Amino acid sequence: MSLAGLFNNRWPGVALFDLDGTLVDSAPDLAAAVDQMLEHLGRTPAGLDKVRNWVGNGSAVLVRRALAGRIDWEPAEAKDDALFNDAMAIFYHCYGQHNGRHARVFDGVEECLEHLKGLGCRLAIVTNKPDQFVAPLLEQTGLDKWFELAVGGDTLPVKKPDPAPLLHAMEKLGGTPGTTVMVGDSAADVNAALAASIPCVAVRYGYNFGGSVDSLGADAVVDSLAELL
Ligand SMILES: O=C(O)COP(=O)(O)O
Ligand SMILES: [Mg+2]
Fold first, then answer.
1. Is 35 annotated as a binding residue?
2. Where are the domains of the chain?
3. Which atom of ligand 1 is found nearest the CA of 21?
């Protein structure tokens, strides 16, 4: 499906983009920070392949997964608040140093953003990444020039898969569900879009817990954002 189809040919529209795993391959920097945090706590580093699959539900969940050593940490394991608080503080400190260092923009992203801008679209980021890391990463990768708004993981009291961050960005940019599209890489993105009644494109190359995005219920699934042009 083309973007024009998703927008019902009603231009200009609003396009909302997830950040990690959709626009930017940030997993190497996140993994470096997670591993430094684990080593600091006397734990074994997790490595890039594991950490990549733990990204997408915000930093607190990433740190919980890292402390548990697996994706499906049990709420019962979330009792040790002192350890968790230490781990969060160390992770924030380390990620602040690594953020943007090895991150690279995925192929097809710049072409897609340029095309949408040319059509008069208004563009926003809607990410679960903590607010303080969003602007530095956008600047570092040169993506900041395309976006007039960024909603981060703590802009609102709730994160994706709650629909509120998408609706907030959509309303700020004057969109309606019929003239807005969400583009993301994970179940959190697709479920937020479904709950907001906003059409959704999912990318296959991102961080969807190692699973397939084809069965999440997105309106279109692509291997590159260039496919949408
Ligand atoms: O920090 C995260 O969990 C990643 O955020 P995003 O995939 O929503 O951009
Ligand atoms: Mg993502």
1. no
2. 3-26+103-228, 27-98
3. 7
